[in-house]
Amino acid sequence: MLNDEKFSVTDQESNYAFSISDYADQVFEGEAALRLLHNRILFVREGSGVLMIDNYAYNISGRQIFLMAKDQSFHIRKGASITGYELNFDEFFWEKAPASASNCKSVLFDNAAVNQLLPLDRGDFKEIAPIFRALWREDRKPDYINKPDALAAYLKIMMIKMANINAALKAGFDNYEYQQYRQFYDLIGKDFMVSREVDYYAAELNISSRKLTTLCKRYSGKGAKELINSKLMAEAKRYLQFSSNPVKDIAFRLRFSTPEQFSHFFKKNAAQSPQHYRRGLVKTDM
């Protein structure tokens, strides 16, 4: 649940299409959440606390990779601690990577929400940690003519390794059922304004509501209703942040029967009213 945490418009535009930062027992003070301008990879060697991505909470523990795509919201809650690396890159930089790695990048980032967290076993961790370290060291070297190409080569290797880890994690899943889950996730993005009922999506997929909820729990750790509500909350926050429309107009735009119903829904999921959330945004942007 979000409490009094602020949500700012976007992260800072960087001068380069690529950056990598080193975290050594970095403790976060509850900075405002960001809407990402670039793709982001967060490699956690060790850590604790909570990371929020698009209104979902993930526990930070260690031996983890978090994948976030451009335009997702991202926030590390106050008190969280991380040792590891944060890597940012945009599509222009990725074009420097050899084409043979494009499929790996697409698998991981085209639908990042279903690949948000990659837990690493000891073998994967020992294999991928040196790549992050080498990439960070290369980035710290003085600029030279082919430096972007060298960085892109490291990024290609990293992307291939992460795609292999992701494939291994999915290997135990029944392929047909996983595809049903992916279809449901895509349907939410398309039809969440049409219906917020699990029964609707289950019927579209020709499975029972119970089966759909089971699939969601298996592949995302969240229930079907929770995923639907999260999409609706993300859209509500977008309207509150990027428009000056009155709350009542936003309520009707999102197909709530009354502004009171919308306010109750928002407060239940964000631990604050829409008005309070919007006032927090105004203070953050000052």
Rounded Rg: 20 Å
Strand line-up in the sheet with most strands: 1-8-3-6-9
Given helix and strand content, the structural type is alpha+beta
Number of helices: 11
Number of domains: 2
Mean pLDDT: 84
Query: CATH homologous superfamily of the largest domain - what is it?
Result: Regulatory protein AraC
Strand content: 15-25%
Short description:
The protein has 286 residues and is of the alpha+beta class.
Describe this structure in words.
The chain is α+β, with helices and mostly antiparallel strands. It folds into 2 domains: 18-171, Regulatory protein AraC (Jelly Rolls); 175-284, Arc Repressor Mutant, subunit A, CATH 1.10.10. It is 50% helix and 19% strand. It has 11 helices and 9 strands. The strands form 2 sheets. A 5-stranded antiparallel β-sheet has the order 1-8-3-6-9. It has a 4-stranded antiparallel β-sheet with strand order 2-7-4-5, with no helix packed on it. The radius of gyration is 20 Å and the shape is globular. Keywords: DNA-binding, Transcription, Transcription regulation. Residues 182-280 form the HTH araC/xylS-type domain. GO terms for molecular function: DNA-binding transcription factor activity; sequence-specific DNA binding.
